[in-house]
Amino acid sequence: MRHLLLLLLIDGLLLKHFLCALSFKRRVVARVFIQRLIFNMHNAIDDWVEEIAVMGNQDQRAGVALQPTL
C-alpha cells in the first residue's frame, strides 16, 4: 500500500510538471504571435500596395501590335 501511495504521488508531481511546461509553452507561443501581429501592423499602411495580387487570363490581356523582331 505504501508503494502505491508513493507511485500516485510521483505520478501527480510528474503530471504537474508536464502541465506547467505545457502552459509555459502556450504563453511563449501566444506572446510571439502577438508580437508578430504588432510588428506587421507597422507596415500595414505603407506596404498595402505590395500585397494586392493582380491576376488575369490570356483572353483579357493587352495586345502587342507591331512588335519589333530582333
From TrEMBL:
Name of the protein: Uncharacterized protein
Species per Swiss-Prot/TrEMBL record: Vibrio cholerae
